[in-house]
Structures are given as structure tokens and as C-alpha cells.
Amino acid sequence: MPRRTALTVATLAGSVALAAAAPAAGSVPHPGHATITHGSSKIKLSKKTRKAMSHKHYTLTAIAPAKYKKHTLRSPIKSGTYENFSATVNTAGGFRISHGGTSVSIRKFQSKSSAGSGSGTAIVTGHGRIKAVTTGEPSSVVPGNPVRASGFTVTMAKPLVKALDGAFGTKLFKKHAKIGKGSVVFYYK
Fold it and tell me: pTM for the complete prediction?
């Protein structure tokens, strides 16, 4: 149960964590406009997040090709753009959170970042595309090709918190909006 529970929270931010890579765009010169070809994002869930979710018996399933192992969510990057001080990243897969006969899918993440922080949207059951997460500034950025960024906080955005708390009739997501730490790597041409 803790693995499925952890995946629930990680899913919410997994794809959006990619947004934290934008600071790398400003670190060194690179082509004015580049196409992101592939990569991956990872979110390591905090102990507090894992405990809160498992205590309340939430479960989730991955929508391929997203994966979860050792409290870390991995989501592949399928496309995007990288230009000067900003990046737009699209990830593949998604997740379905279930509890008490209710199920909510969160899929087709799109992340945007600029100057050290970012945010992302996702398609959420019953809500269409809404703001899903925010990311903080990474503690480490390795510029080049690939671009690597790590150590940034991942937090559920208010629209997603409201959608999940409303769907499940709880305040769990509001109380535990901070998900964990993220990292990202992507290649561009």
C-alpha cells in the first residue's frame, strides 16, 4: 500500500518537475530555439507525504509508461521546447488515484519554467486541463546537452488540491500539498 500511496502524490508532480530545468537554460549559451527530444523526470516522495497517503488508504495505478520504484516516480519526457531562459516539457503517461469507490485520473502533464521556478498543468478527471504543480528553484543545475536539474521542491497547485479534495470529500491534499524533491534530465536538438 505505501508504494501505491506514494505514487499517487508523486504522480501529481512527476511531470511538472521537469519545469525546474529552466534555470539551466540561463546558465550557459545554447541554441536560441531547440526541440526537446527525450528525457525523464523523477520525484522522491517525502516520508511525511508517504505516511499521510498510506494512513488514509489511497491507492493508485500508473498510466503507462510512468513507473514507480523505491518511493520514486519516474515519468518519461516525450517532447518540448527549450529557448533562452525557459522550457516547455510534455511527459508521457499519467496516474489514477482511487479511494472509496472514487477514481481520478491525472494525465498529459505539460510543464513550463522560467528563471528558477516553474509550474505545470495536467488533464484531471472532471476538470479538464488545470494547474497541477509548482516547483521551486533547483539546488543543482548541470547545463549542456543533456540539461540536468535536481533538488527542487514539488508542491501541488491549488486547483489540483481543490479538485482532489472535492472528488474525495477530504482536506488531505490541502494539508499535504508538499510532495517531495524532484530532478529532471532532458536532451534537445
Answer: 0.82
